C-alpha cells in the first residue's frame, strides 16, 4: 500500500495535470483524481515518463481522499460553475473537520511555475506554504511568486482583476498592431522585428514576447503567415466581464479594461515606419500604466470594502513571474507602492508622473493617427481619456449635475458654500424668456 501523500489535486485538464506534475517534480507526493478515469491514467503515465515522479492516481473519490495525510489539503482545478459544486459535493462526503479544499493559469505556468494568489484561511496557507514556495514561479530578484493575499475571497478577487488587466494589455497590443499594419503598412516580418525590439527594453514582457513570436509563424496549411488566417473573433471566459461589473459596483473607473471587453464583443507611411515604432514604444508606457492603475484601484476599493488590507506592492511582486501579465514594468510598480503604500493612483507617483508628462505628446500622436486613419483604438483612447480626466482639477461634471437637478431635483453641491442645494431651473429660465 502506498504511503499517505502530502496533498491531493482534483481536476486533471491541462492546468491540473501540469500543476500536479510540478508539485511531484518538487518532491512532494501527490494524489490525483478526475471524474473521467482516462485523465487519471494519462497523468499517471506522464509522471512515470518524466522520471517516475511520486504521483498516485485514483478512480474512486473515497480512496482518493483517504490517500492524503490529515489534515487533508485538496486543490480543486475544475471549470467554474456547476462542476465546482459537483466536485465539492462528491469529495466533501469523505472529508472531515479540519480538512481544506483550495479552489484554484495556464498550461506552461502550472507546470513550470505559476504565480499563486492564495486567499482565505491563513492556517491552510501556512500548512502548505512550503509546497507553494517550491512550485511557484521563481524570479531572481524577488523570490517565489506567491504570497498570502488576505482573508475571505481576496485571492480570487485579485486573480480576477489580474485577468482584467490582462484583457486591457492584450487589447492595447492588438491596437498597436492594427495601426502599425494598417497605417504603417508593416509586413509581418517587420512587425516581428518591432515587437522583438520592444521586448528588449522597458516594455519587456510575456505578452510582447509571444506577440513577436506569433508574427514569425508561417501557415502550415497554406502560404503566408498564420496570424493572417486566424479568424478575428476573440473568445473569453468571463473574468473580464466580472472585473468590469465589480468596477461599476465599486464606482471605480476602469475604462481601458472596459474597452477591451467591448473590443472582444465587437469582434463576434512607409517612410515613417521606424519613427512610428518609436512613437508607439513611448506611448505604450502610458497605456500600460493606466491599465495597471485601474486594476490596482479596483483591488484597493474592494480591499477597503471587505477589510482585507491587501498589499498592492506585494501583488505586483508576485505578478513578475508565472502569469500572463508578467513584465519588467511590474518592478517599477512595486517600487512605487514601496515608496508610498497609500498611493491613491499610480499616475500620481512622482517617477511615473514625470515620465508620462514627458511622453504624453507621443501618446497623443498615436491616438490622433489612429483616429485620422479611421482605425478604432478604444483601449488607447480610453487610457488617454483616463489620464486626461484624472489630471484635471475641474471637469464638466458640474453641468451634468445641474442637468440632473433641473429635471429630477437631485440637488447639487457648490464650490464656495458647503451643503446641498436645489434650484428651480425651469421657473427661472421660463421667467427670463417672458
Automatic annotation (TrEMBL):
It is an enzyme of class 1 (oxidoreductase). The active site is at residues 159, 166. It comes from the Eukaryota. Keywords: Gluconate utilization, NADP, Oxidoreductase, Pentose shunt. Residues 155-426 form the 6-phosphogluconate dehydrogenase C-terminal domain. Its EC number is 1.1.1.44. GO terms for biological process: D-gluconate metabolic process; pentose-phosphate shunt. PANTHER family: 6-PHOSPHOGLUCONATE DEHYDROGENASE. Homodimer. This is 6-phosphogluconate dehydrogenase, decarboxylating. It comes from Hevea brasiliensis (Para rubber tree).
Amino acid at each position: 500500500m502506498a504511503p499517505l501523500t502530502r496533498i491531493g489535486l482534483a481536476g486533471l485538464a491541462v492546468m491540473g495535470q501540469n500543476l500536479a506534475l510540478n508539485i511531484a517534480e518538487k518532491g512532494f507526493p501527490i494524489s490525483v483524481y478526475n471524474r473521467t478515469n482516462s485523465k487519471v491514467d494519462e497523468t499517471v503515465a506522464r509522471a512515470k515518463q518524466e522520471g517516475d515522479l511520486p504521483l498516485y492516481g485514483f478512480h474512486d473519490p473515497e480512496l482518493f481522499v483517504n490517500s492524503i495525510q490529515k489534515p487533508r489539503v485538496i486543490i480543486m482545478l475544475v471549470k467554474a460553475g456547476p462542476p465546482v459544486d459537483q466536485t465539492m459535493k462528491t469529495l466533501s462526503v469523505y472529508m472531515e473537520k479540519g480538512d481544506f479544499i483550495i479552489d484554484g493559469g495556464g498550461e506552461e505556468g502550472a507546470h513550470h511555475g505559476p504565480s499563486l494568489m492564495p486567499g482565505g484561511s491563513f492556517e491552510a496557507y501556512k500548512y502548505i506554504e512550503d509546497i507553494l514556495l517550491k512550485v511557484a514561479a521563481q524570479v531572481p530578484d524577488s523570490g517565489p511568486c506567491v504570497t498570502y493575499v488576505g482573508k475571505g475571497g481576496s485571492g480570487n478577487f485579485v486573480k480576477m482583476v489580474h485577468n482584467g488587466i490582462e484583457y486591457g494589455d492584450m487589447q492595447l497590443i492588438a491596437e498597436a498592431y492594427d495601426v502599425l499594419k494598417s497605417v504603417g503598412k508593416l509586413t509581418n516580418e517587420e512587425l516581428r522585428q518591432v515587437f522583438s525590439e520592444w521586448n528588449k527594453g522597458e516594455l519587456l514582457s510575456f505578452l510582447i514576447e509571444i506577440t513577436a513570436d506569433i508574427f514569425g509563424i508561417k501557415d502550415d496549411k497554406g502560404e503566408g503567415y498564420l496570424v493572417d488566417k486566424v479568424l478575428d473573433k476573440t473568445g473569453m471566459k468571463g473574468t473580464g466581464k466580472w472585473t468590469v461589473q465589480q468596477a461599476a459596483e465599486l464606482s471605480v473607473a476602469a475604462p481601458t479594461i472596459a474597452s477591451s471587453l467591448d473590443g472582444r464583443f465587437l469582434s463576434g507611411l512607409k517612410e515613417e515606419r521606424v519613427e512610428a515604432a518609436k512613437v508607439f514604444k513611448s506611448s505604450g508606457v502610458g497605456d500600460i500604466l493606466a491599465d495597471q492603475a485601474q486594476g490596482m484601484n479596483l483591488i484597493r476599493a474592494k480591499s477597503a470594502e471587505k477589510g482585507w488590507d491587501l498589499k498592492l506592492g506585494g501583488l505586483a511582486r508576485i505578478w513578475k513571474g508565472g502569469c500572463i501579465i508578467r513584465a519588467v514594468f511590474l518592478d517599477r510598480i512595486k517600487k512605487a507602492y514601496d515608496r508610498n503604500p497609500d498611493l491613491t493612483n499610480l499616475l500620481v507617483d512622482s517617477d511615473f508622473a514625470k515620465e508620462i508628462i514627458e511622453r504624453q505628446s507621443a501618446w497623443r500622436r498615436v491616438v490622433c493617427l489612429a483616429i485620422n486613419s479611421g482605425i478604432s483604438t478604444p483601449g488607447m483612447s480610453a487610457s488617454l481619456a483616463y489620464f486626461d480626466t484624472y489630471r484635471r482639477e475641474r471637469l464638466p461634471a458640474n453641468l451634468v449635475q445641474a442637468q440632473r437637478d433641473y429635471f429630477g431635483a437631485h440637488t447639487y453641491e457648490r464650490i464656495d458654500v458647503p451643503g446641498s442645494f436645489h434650484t428651480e431651473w425651469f421657473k427661472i429660465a421660463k421667467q427670463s424668456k417672458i
